[in-house]
Design a protein that fits this description.
This protein has 328 residues and is α+β, with helices and mostly antiparallel strands. It is 38% helix and 18% strand. The longest helix is centred in the middle third of the chain and has 19 residues, at 128-146.
């Protein structure tokens, strides 16, 4: 395990994997969601990754402004906030405490919509990412066991009776021409489990199942996949999930949607050298902390009414240097 604090310590990394790690992170940088709130215009103009500094002279790594976790070739690299740095490599118990603290910050962030953290506050998972998987799998499994999200979806099926509208083109081409005139191609709306939302949940669950290490999380994810076995396997983007809305009867499913957006918008997992065990979950620390400060004031201090960062203020009269202060 490698522990790197923002702009603080340096750690050696195996030489035979050093260049491969840099290629992996460059690929993540290029494939990240460019529209994400957490990446500014300057980031979008840079092609090479900014997650970690690679010091090739002595094969060492140094963290930049990002926090999170990277899994690569059996190694776990924890990127931790600098305020917890004590000048030495932290013990596992210390890393657990830091991860829980960061997750507490995320529970107040509006931009991430990090949900349902307090219900898993006492979980004893060491890895930052494993805690996220545990919370998602636990909540999703419990909800799907009590309620399945179903919506009306247009279906085209061959029936022995007329239902909805007759698909005359399909009936002529596939039925009459093949001597199957007794089967009628019909189009109708059905209350289906195989819908866009459940496909997204299945996609994210399969992604996480291939990476999760904790047995409890893997059991929960396996149960989710079993429940959604009849749902089609499709690839899903974060933008598609963000556009999903629910009526009040299905408001509990908004939490699952927000979890899925959290993973898809801020993490990358793909087939790299025929492996699905490479993963990165990385967030720029300054935006996370700024969002936490505003969220904490807004939710916990009733007598203070805070306003989110406003971009209309400038440091100079010529308005060359924009400011985004929090007003209270």
């Amino acid at each position: 395990m490698v522990n790197l604090f923002e702009y603080q310590n340096k750690e050696e990394f195996p030489k035979h994997h050093f260049d491969d790690l840099e290629v992996f992170l460059d690929d993540i940088w290029s494939k990240r969601e460019k529209s994400s709130y957490y990446f500014n215009e300057e980031d979008n103009r840079v092609e090479q990754q900014r997650f970690i500094q690679f010091l090739h002279k002595n094969n060492t790594l140094k963290s930049n402004k990002y926090v999170g976790v990277i899994h690569f070739e059996g190694k776990t690299i924890n990127l931790l906030p600098k305020i917890f740095y004590k000048g030495e490599d932290p013990k596992e118990a210390h890393v657990k405490a830091i991860n829980k603290h960061v997750l507490w910050w995320l529970s107040y962030c509006r931009k991430l919509k990090f949900p349902n953290y307090l219900s898993g506050l006492n979980t004893d998972k060491a890895d930052f990412f494993e805690i996220l998987i545990y919370l998602f799998s636990k909540y999703t499994r419990e909800l799907l066991n009590s309620s399945i999200y179903q919506t009306y979806t247009e279906v085209n099926k061959e029936l022995s009776f007329v239902k909805g509208r007759i698909d005359f083109n399909g009936y002529i081409q596939n039925n009459l021409s093949n001597g199957r005139h007794h089967k009628i191609s019909c189009e109708f709306d059905a209350f289906e489990m195989d819908n866009e939302f459940n496909r997204c949940v299945k996609f994210v669950s399969k992604l996480l199942f291939s990476i999760a290490k904790e047995p409890q999380s893997k059991r929960f994810l396996s149960d989710i996949l079993f429940i959604l076995d009849e749902v089609k396997d499709v690839n899903v983007s974060a933008d598609k999930m963000k556009r999903m809305s629910f009526n009040p009867m299905f408001s509990d499913f908004e939490t699952i949607r927000d979890y899925c957006v959290l993973f898809l918008d801020n993490s990358v997992s793909f087939n790299y050298k025929n492996s699905l065990k490479l993963f990165a979950f990385l967030l720029p620390m300054e935006y996370v902390f700024e969002d936490f400060i505003y969220g904490f004031i807004d939710k916990e201090i009733d007598e203070i009414k805070a306003k989110a960062q406003v971009g209309s203020k400038h440091l100079d009269e010529e308005k060359n240097f924009a400011l985004k202060p929090i007003y209270i």
